[in-house]
Design brief:
4 helices; Immunoglobulin-like; alpha+beta; three-stranded antiparallel beta sheet; 2 domains; elongated; four-stranded antiparallel beta sheet; 215 residues
Length: 215
């Protein structure tokens, strides 16, 4: 069986971070919507907004330490490894994949709005855009939307899915496309949960987004 590997060596790389409002806050809304997620009264941790989460503190330090997911009390309490107090949320434990996603969001800086990093050697290609997939995280299908303002001339446009190890998982598109908006759905039901990357390339331009599949 032939195995293809994909190496991220591109003239332009665009990585979208975990989106707090679309991926993290909905978890808190579902599991901590009507009461404190931990503690009671003025000392409780309320997670109905980003501001409340980031303002949260404890006798052991801040609840969230941007850039240090596993060192943040929030993640330790969710995993039940804090070594003090009760686990959270009170409604029952979250899945490991969900906690991993929250930890990843903190590792990426714990920002409310996603920050897109772009390679220094090229301008952002406003006529060639791969938007963040939706929904994200997803299970098991997600939609990819991209724009092509100008024709990619003699070059075919390709949209490929790559796993966290750089292995090519699926080629969704490899053909000449007319300028305009395009979208395609990807079904990952046969794959394990995890982080995947979608790469759009054509006309010498490349963009990449990160996607999270949670079963």
């Amino acid at each position: 069986m032939k195995v293809s590997y994909f190496f991220f060596i591109f003239p332009i790389l665009v990585f979208a971070q975990v989106d707090y409002n679309n991926s993290i806050q909905p978890v808190f809304d579902e599991r901590c919507a009507t009461a404190s997620c931990h503690g009671t009264g003025s000392g409780g941790l309320y997670l109905t907004s980003y501001a409340q989460l980031m303002a949260g503190t404890s006798n052991h330090g801040p609840v969230v330490i941007p850039g240090d997911g596993e060192g943040s009390i929030l993640v330790q309490k969710l995993r039940g490894t804090a070594g003090f107090g009760s686990a959270m949320p009170p409604s029952g434990p979250l899945s490991d994949d969900t906690i991993d996603l929250i930890s990843l969001w903190i590792d990426e800086g714990a920002t409310e709005e996603p920050v897109v990093g772009i390679g220094d050697n090229q301008d952002f290609p406003t006529d060639f855009i791969l938007h963040q997939n939706f929904p994200n995280p997803f299970n098991p299908t997600t939609t990819l939307l991209f724009n092509i303002k100008n024709s990619t001339s003699q070059n075919n446009t390709s949209l490929q899915i790559v796993d966290i190890n750089g292995r090519l998982v699926k080629t969704l598109i490899r053909e000449h496309l007319n300028p305009g908006k395009h979208q395609i759905q990807w079904d990952a039901s046969h794959l394990p949960s995890g982080v995947y990357f979608a790469q759009l390339s054509g006309g010498g331009k490349i963009q990449v987004i990160k996607m999270v599949y949670l079963k």
